[in-house]
Amino acid sequence: MPEVAEKWRFRVAALLLLPLLLLEVAKSSLWGSGRRYTPDWRSLDSRPLPVWFDEAKFGVFVHWGVYSVPAWGSEWFWWHWQGEGLPQYQRFMNENYPPGFSYPEFGPQFTARFFEPEKWADLFMASGAKYVVFTTKHHEGFTNWPSPVSWNWNSKDVGPHRDLVGELGAAVRSRNLRYGLYHSLLEWFHPLYQLDKKNGFKTQNFVNVKTTPELYHLVNSYKPDIIWSDGEWESPDTYWNATGFLSWLYNDSPIKAKVVVNDRWGRNTSCHHGGFYNCQDKFRPQSLLDHKWEMCTSIDKNSWGYRRDMIMADILSESEIIWELVQTVSLGGNYLLNIAPTKDGLIDPIFQERLLSVGRWMNVNGEAIYSSKPWRVQFEKNASVWYTSQELAVYAIFLRWPENGILNIISPITTPNTKISMLGIQGDLKWVERQDEGLLISLPLLLPSALPVGSAWTIKLVGVE
């Protein structure tokens, strides 16, 4: 037996040393040149946002993990069941699983049996998205890649026995789409996190052994275009060593020139620090901000993860999605739309249909979206017309077709060279100036079935002030 005890002592020592070794390897990679960013928010926030992100405008979010196995309630299933002990979740488990069943037992059932990353990437490309953000790890702690510090709780050791992050990344990038990685800082039930929480986050056992090594490993292994951080709300950025990691990311990492990050790096940072602001889920301001932002939302209004109890009333309609996209871009934001695959790796037809409907709309109206800039006026007073601009053109996107076929817009000021047309329709449109203010534009006399899209039509104005 002494040799068995010695073997376990060696393994424990190796497990404790491994995160430190990974950290040193990460820090030693590619010493950068040029401007250096110091580990403080004043310096980090001065970094210019890589241009590609603002130009992209539209991305697809993918929530996929062990929570896709019970597929009931929401992706917070484990917490609602055993963290909060909500009666409906306890009742669900009592009615569907044997006594004593534990959450980790869902792991082997997360098979990804029908996961075909090439088909996923084709769908994302057809949606008109320019980037994809994939969950590497949610708050349950299961990693969708072979994390060296997530033993027997990752997609290589359990369930799929595949590197899901790597496979999807290769497929997405082969279609020239940008690839972002969602990563939760916290893990609800990790014993080291619970210990730090008990200590009032004055210790950093979990950060040093788990969170930080994983972030460095993700960056060096997959070189993401976006690091979409989450799970920050219980503790300050100093607990997470956020500024130290970001200074390395911006100065010395292999993705220092292209990477974009959000604002969820501690309970004090959301909507205040970071490359772009999320502020909160489904955030959408009422006016133009002076900082780049992104609205993240889900096709299923009540969950980010797949759930079997989803009904049609819970699903965003095509019009709702397009309207949110238009309003977000008009106010200077990006729109990140979430879908949730099944445990087998299938994307529900309703999610496919919604993504494809966005793609059809973008095929006609993308000129008013991609690489656009907010105009001097973002929307008309009645909020039925929203504006974007691009070089010499102004785009007026109207959400409802006027009953008389005459569109009245107030904000544009014409010149002798003004020309007005509709995207998807050939030829110029007739228009007249109102005596008081604004323009009256005669829309094409077409049946609804002959219109280029079913909702949110775009008027292009060239030669306006």
From TrEMBL:
It is found in: Lysosome. One of its GO terms (cellular component) is lysosome. Residues 1-28 form the signal peptide. It catalyses: a neolactoside IV(2)-alpha-Fuc-nLc4Cer(d18:0) + H2O = a neolactoside nLc4Cer(d18:0) + L-fucose; an alpha-L-fucoside + H2O = L-fucose + an alcohol; a neolactoside IV(2)-alpha-Fuc-nLc4Cer(d18:1(4E)) + H2O = a neolactoside nLc4Cer(d18:1(4E)) + L-fucose. Residues 33-367 form the Glycoside hydrolase family 29 N-terminal domain. Its EC number is 3.2.1.51. Alpha-L-fucosidase is responsible for hydrolyzing the alpha-1,6-linked fucose joined to the reducing-end N-acetylglucosamine of the carbohydrate moieties of glycoproteins. Homotetramer. This is Alpha-L-fucosidase. The gene is FUCA1.
